[in-house]
Write a structure and sequence with these properties.
Layout lengths: L3 E8 L6 H13 L5 E7 L11 H4 L3 E2 L5 E2 L1 H10 L8 E3 H13 L10 H19 L4 E6 L9 H13 L4 E8 L12 H11 L7 E6 L5 H11 L6 E5 L7 H7 L2 H8 L10 H12 L3 E6 L5 E2 L2 E2 L5 H13 L3 E6 L3 H5 L12 E4 L8 H13 L4 E4 L1 H13 L6 E3 L8 E6 L4 H5 L8 E9 L4 H6 L3 E8 L1 E3 L4 H6 L3 E5 L6 E5 L6 E4 L14 H11 L1
Parallel strand pairs: 1-6, 1-7, 2-5, 2-6, 7-8, 8-9, 10-13, 10-14, 14-15, 15-23, 16-17
Antiparallel strand pairs: 3-4, 11-12, 17-20, 18-19, 18-21, 21-22, 22-23
Helix pairs in contact: 1-3, 1-9, 4-5, 5-6, 12-19, 14-15
The structure holds glutamine.
Length: 539
């Protein structure tokens, strides 16, 4: 069987859940018994997502092989329950970088190197390579941005060219938004008609339209889309808002999207299903007990709006862990900067069953987070620290339990007396030379657990592998002082040089990791640390 490529493009506006739609299409095809992979194309010039502020672009997701990608790679991993690696992520910057490098290497053999066809060619080569590496029957390719903008035009050109090369193996799906203006009171199809017309002008004709809206699409609008967008009426797929994104593959499956795609490629289902997934959705819908979890981050505010996108993997990991413990999460964003102004505000923490301090950078809000961690430690409130949350817990312990003065991370105060968190040896030069893109300690590294630890109990094994993204680390000069006062170094790198997990043994649950467990949590495979954290929170 020849390999199939499904391109997913966005119509009308961004932010309608194209990534989740791609992941869901993949899930549906996977449930028909096929091997699926997914690729994200980001139109940004940034070479990777690592240099983008989370409030600009959402969370930076980290892959096993150490790429810093768009958060949609995380969606693909969670829905497909498989690791997605660096070849499956590209940006305009990355594509141009390789074209220019190939030109420097004389690989174009004296030809004039042009934007078209050489850039789309590079895009196609990357897509084919990722598909081959994954040995995928279906490669879903999400083209970032919205049809009609300049930024993604070369990627659309790549779709058009590939379709001319292998017409029977390429399909395009548009995810579009159908507004229901409150004063008008009906769902409008015109913006989508225009988006399809714009897409047509690039030589691409979508086979399906996934109709994102507040409500399901009705027969009248389906017929309009069929008439004006050249698709069979039943290929206008309803994609209304849902309270749980993991319902979307089920919604698509119920409308026969998988079988219709297979039919379009003249293929047949291999007779599998998504029963386990459906069972989970069913189970969630019956849960009513809630657990109140506070997350202390700073990448939330943009203007008057609050964005939870910056911590999407953390949020999803909390959900997965809650469902595994038969509860629903009630999440609150804690603005720890307020604690710095008014210490009495810390009292609000006693209303929470558990607190998480996630990853972060720089000094803003750090003192408030340390105050929150102290409150958790002293009041036996379950605490889970993720990367910066581990570093700040280390600082808190050194200040308030060991009793050291002037304790900081070098990231916050370079010349402090007690840098219990300091820059990693191989990071020094990079920071000095401002070589900052993609140079942190990134991706999966092994870690060995102490058998006395809660982490060991959680994982049920001694050796684990987790994903990292940091430049600073636990300063080994302080190991003795800290362990003498009761801190447990629960996880170390195999050479014992790097502290990966700290715990406080006589606390209900106080576990903090240098790595980011949230990146490896999946709906049907919740992460052990999150699972045990929630278990402690509800006990
Ligand atoms: N800023 C810290 C470091 O670079 C923590 C990074 C993080 O939380 N991802 O080490």
């Amino acid at each position: 069987m020849s390999k199939k490529f499904i391109f997913v493009v966005g119509g009308v506006m961004s932010g309608v859940g194209k990534g989740v739609a791609c992941a869901s299409i993949g899930k549906v095809l996977q449930s028909k018994g096929y091997k699926v992979t997914a690729i994200k194309i980001d139109p940004y010039i940034n070479v990777d997502a690592g240099t983008m502020n989370p409030t600009e672009h959402g969370e930076v997701f980290v892959t096993d092989d150490g790429d810093e990608t768009d958060q949609d790679i995380g969606n693909y991993e969670r829905f497909l329950d498989q690791d997605i690696n660096s070849p499956n992520y590209m940006t305009t910057g990355r594509v141009y970088q390789s074209v220019i490098q190939r030109e420097r290497n004389l690989e174009y053999e004296g030809k004039c190197v042009e934007v078209v066809p050489h850039v789309p060619e590079e895009v196609i080569n990357r897509i084919k390579k990722a598909s081959e590496l994954a040995e995928a029957d279906f490669t879903i390719v999400e083209v970032g941005g919205t049809v009609g903008e300049y930024q993604n035009i070369l990627f659309l050109e790549a779709i058009r060219i590939l379709k001319t090369q292998i017409p029977d193996d390429v399909m395009t799906i548009m995810v579009s938004y159908l507004p229901i203006p409150s004063k008008v009171g009906e769902m409008k199809t015109k913006p989508t008609q225009n988006a399809v017309r714009t897409l047509n002008s690039t030589g691409i004709f979508p086979s399906f339209i996934l109709c994102r809206s507040e409500m399901p699409i009705d027969e009248v609008r389906r017929q309009k889309l069929a008439t004006f967008c050249n698709i069979p009426k039943d290929n206008a797929i309803s994609a209304p808002d849902v309270d749980n994104i993991y319902k979307i593959p089920v919604n698509f499956d119920d409308q026969g999207l998988g079988d219709k795609i297979l039919e379009g490629f003249k293929m047949e289902s291999k007779g599998k299903d998504m029963q386990k997934w459906r069972d989970l959705i069913e189970k969630i819908s019956k849960l009513d007990k809630k657990v109140k979890i506070g997350v202390a981050g700073k990448y939330f505010a943009t203007g008057d709006f609050t964005l939870s996108d910056s911590y999407i993997s953390v949020i999803e990991a909390i959900k997965h862990a809650c469902w595994a413990n038969d509860v629903l999460p009630e999440l609150t964003w804690l603005n720890t900067e307020e604690y710095e102004q008014d210490e009495s505000k810390l009292e609000e923490l006693k209303d929470y069953a558990g607190i998480i301090v996630p990853g972060g950078f720089g000094s803003r809000g750090v003192e408030g987070k340390i105050m929150a961690i102290k409150y958790c430690r002293e009041n036996n409130i379950p605490y889970l620290g993720l990367c910066y949350g581990m570093q700040l817990a280390t600082i808190e312990f050194a200040r308030n339990v060991v009793g050291l003065e002037d304790v900081y991370s070098e990231e916050v105060k370079k010349d402090c007396i007690n840098p219990v968190i300091h820059i990693m040896e191989d990071q020094k030069q990079k920071v000095e030379e401002k070589d900052m893109g993609g140079t942190m300690r990134l991706g999966a590294y092994p870690c060995v657990l102490d058998e006395k630890s809660k982490s060991f109990t959680a994982y049920g094994k001694k050796e684990i592998s987790e994903r990292h993204r940091h430049r600073y680390e636990f300063n080994n000069a302080y190991r003795n002082q800290m362990t003498e006062k009761g801190l447990l170094l629960a996880g170390l790198s195999p050479d014992k040089n790097l502290v990966e997990i700290i715990e406080i043994p006589d606390h209900k649950f106080f576990v903090a990791s240098q790595f980011h467990p949230e990146f490896k949590s999946r709906p049907l495979n919740p992460h052990p640390l999150f699972r045990e954290f929630i278990k402690a929170a509800i006990s």
